[in-house]
User: Fold this.
Amino acid sequence: MTKSFIRAEKCLCCAECLAAKACTSRAIFRLDVKEPAIIDAQFCHGCSMCIEACKGDAIITGL
Ligand code: SF4
Ligand code: SF4
Assistant:
């Protein structure tokens, strides 16, 4: 399975992370609203919904 990753340098630190909202696995979270979002790989099942939803084009699929 191919997992998704957030490129922290591209994350816009949106007030509301639409990628996190789109993730049905709740694999995307924020430690602080001023910090980039994080994907917990153990919960990611590679659906790519977050890639479509991310406003900053900050998420890519696995390497
Ligand atoms: S939507 Fe994308 S750019 Fe915005 S906070 Fe979430 S991961 Fe970062
Ligand atoms: S690929 Fe799917 S499961 Fe993985 S973080 Fe994105 S929305 Fe969540």
